[in-house]
Amino acid sequence: MALTPDDRTAITDLISLHGQLTDDGELDRMHEVFTEDVVYDVSDVGFGELHGLAAFRDAAERLGDGNPVGHHVTNVVLSEVDDDEVHVRSKAIAVHADGSAGSAVYRDVVKRGPHGWRITRRTILARRKPLGR
Q1: Is the N end or the C end of the chain the one with fewer CB atoms within 10 Å?
Q2: Three-point CA angle 106, 108, 110, nearest 5°
Q3: Residue 39 in contact with residue 120, Cβ under 8 Å?
Q4: Which domain holds residue 22?
Q5: How would you list the strands of the sheet with 34-41, edge to edge?
C-alpha cells in the first residue's frame, strides 16, 4: 500500500514541527514528534547517542545558549518501507546566535503508532564539505 497524500503531509509536518518546538523551547512537547524511546544520534557532531525523550531534553537544556536559535528543514524526501514505517531524509540548516550557520542531513525512521506518525530514530550528519566529499 502506498503512502496516502495525508500520510505524506503528516510526516512532512512532523519533520518541520521539531524545529518549531525546539526554537520555541517547548521541549515538553517533543512527544508530538518523537516516540518516548527515540534514539537521537548526534555522534557525528560529538554528542553520542541519546536514548529517550528525557535524555534529549537533558542534552538540550545542558547545551543552553549553545543551541541554534533557528532550525530550518528543507528538501524532505520520504521512502516507504512498509505501511507503518517510512525513512525520511531531509536537509537541516542551523543558525546560531552569533550569526554563523551550519548544514546537516537528518536521517529519520518514522513509524505509525497509536498517536500517529512519530520519529523513532534520528541520525544527524554534519555537512562539512561540498559535493558530498
Answers
A1: C
A2: 150
A3: yes
A4: 5-132
A5: 49-51, 34-41, 116-127, 101-113, 85-95, 70-82
pTM of the predicted model as reported, rounded to 2 decimal places: 0.93
**Which residues of 1-133 form beta strands (DSSP E)?**
34-41, 49-51, 70-82, 85-95, 101-113, 116-127
- Which CATH number goes with the domain that contains 32? 3.10.450.50
For residue 22, give every residue at least 6 positions away whose Cβ sits within 8 Å of its Cβ, in sequence order, or none.
Answer: 60, 67, 71
Cell numbers standing for residue 11 = 510526516
Q: Please count the structural domains in the chain.
A: 1
pLDDT over 90 percentage in the chain: 90
* Tens-place pLDDT, residues 102-123: 999 999 999 999 999 999 999 9
